[in-house]
Amino acid sequence: MVTPRVALVTPKLPLTGDTEADELLENDSLALLIGMLLDQQVPMEKAFHSPYDLKQRLGDKLEAADIASRDPDELREMFKERPALHRFPAAMADRTQELSRRIVEQYEGDAGRVWASATTGDELVANLRELPGFGEQKARVFTALLAKRLGVKPQGWEQAAGPYGQPGHYSVADIDGPDSLAAVRAYKKEQKARAKAKR
Questions:
Q1: Could you count the other beta carbons within 10 Å of the beta carbon of residue 173?
Q2: Count of beta carbons in the 10 Å neighbourhood of residue 195
Q3: Where are the domains of the chain?
Q4: Does the model's pTM come out above 0.90?
Q5: Which CATH superfamily is domain 19-165 in?
Q6: Is 155 helix (H, G, I), strand (E, B) or coil?
Q7: Whole-angstrom Cα distance, residue 3 to residue 125?
Q8: Tens digits of per-residue pLDDT, 98-109?
């Protein structure tokens, strides 16, 4: 009897070290937005795994309308529950709820419409900039991530994403495996060292 060979599919977003958490990022637009929102002042793997953990704590569902309507104190406790979902769980619970409310109000609860409704790269960056917790840099990085990893490429996305739209290892948008992760970390370390030297 011949055992059938199973093709190993490389995840498009190998960001957490956990296959199920990576698959959630790839298949759930809200999870991806929340992961990007949380990607500050904690390790990248932690930030992008937290949407998976939050989904479990919410009863195995991750819906913008549900998060938006939750009691804020209840959501903060979910973020604080060990292991905490972020270094600043209460603040990030509030920010996640703000994000979810914006998705409900402007995109009928469908996070994917943030980019599906954009016809140009500039429009995509503008849509992202309107979301709580998404400044200029984060909006550009996320635009690059959508294009490079998920094939969402509205006209002019490279220019709209700025340096993150170029080939190289500059951000989470360029991570497709362990080697590129190491390269991105090295680049960020170098940038921090340069910034520190200029002070």
A1: 23
A2: 9
A3: 19-165
A4: yes
A5: Hypothetical protein; domain 2 (1.10.340.30)
A6: strand
A7: 48
A8: 999 999 999 999
